[in-house]
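Note to self: the last two entries modelled the partners one at a time, which told us nothing about the interface. This time every component goes in together.
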Amino acid sequence: MDTVLSGIRSTGNLHLGNYFGAVKNFVKMQHENRCFFFVADYHALTTHPKPENLHDNIKKVLSEYLAAGLDPEVATLYIQSDVPEIIELYLLLNMNAYVGELERTTTFKEKIRKQPENVNAGLLTYPVLMCSDIIIHQADKVPVGKDQEQNLEMARKFAKRFNHMYGVEYFKLPEPYNFGDELVKVPGLDGTGKMGKSDGNGIFLADEPSVIRKKVMRAVTDAGPKEVNSTMPEPVANLFYLLDLLSTPDTVEHFRSAYHDCSIRYGDLKKQLAEDIINFTTPIRERINDIYNDSDYLRKVVNMGAEKARASASKTLREVREILGYRPF
Ligand code: ADP
Ligand code: TRP
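The predicted structure of the combined assembly is written out below.
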């Protein structure tokens, strides 16, 4: 049985990218594996340092996980900040992580560009905390989107370095995972780049149908194909990417051949895509509110998750401390 683990930062509502990049795989895997899924609320502080929305964002992400199908009875579902063992391992791993390699990480460089006024050390050591999240439970597989590939590479590097430095075969080397062959990168509908919470281009699981219709109808396209069988420009290919994820194969085939014989009308494609997204998100959206308002249930889930996660994490930490040479007097 594999150990599967993933997390999402509590910086806002879940969008289709989060769902297809991470959550969907996880929901599929939770019954056959030892699963951990958590809300990365410490990671959220690297970009969202203000206390006002912290608690509510955690609650939102947790409710949306549950509404999307994570089962807290079979998987361990917890809040990162409820498991202090993660932070102790993070501190220990920091001693073997080099500033130079952290500075070269793509996500760090990107964040420097995006928030030059707040280049904090938490951003620099983000991959170390992520490594700690993963190896504290000895995870084998980590369902994430394509954007997390490098962070996973770093996690393997740190785990391997630990084993090498202390001459042990202790930590497993975690692999990014997706059911398909490739990691997923769900595009935004603004023509370029990925869908992201902070990119202003998200279609959220909690969005009302009218909002989804508006967002999809506004998606960037072009004037339409001029020649038979021409290559699709990126914004149009992005619409097809979403269609592939959310519509039936017949629908995809219908619009693909319409594109290739130049009879396509983007308005029809968008209408269909919006309805298919709405069909998909509606049952999830309807569950989100009920769960969000059920404080007793959420408290139970969080307490149960923290207890299970801490049991697993403290075992690892005990063993790590011993490997490092910490002994009781
Ligand atoms: P965001 O990028 O919206 O801030 P997170 O950084 O919290 O979201 O990402 C949480 C998970 O969702 C990660 O596994 C990430 O790879 C995945 N993810 C985020 N955006 C996308 C996307 N557009 N396509 C595929 N996976 C994504
Ligand atoms: N860095 C991830 C993201 O932004 C979130 C995350 C934190 C994570 N710790 C993790 C994902 C551990 C997988 C495993 O998307």
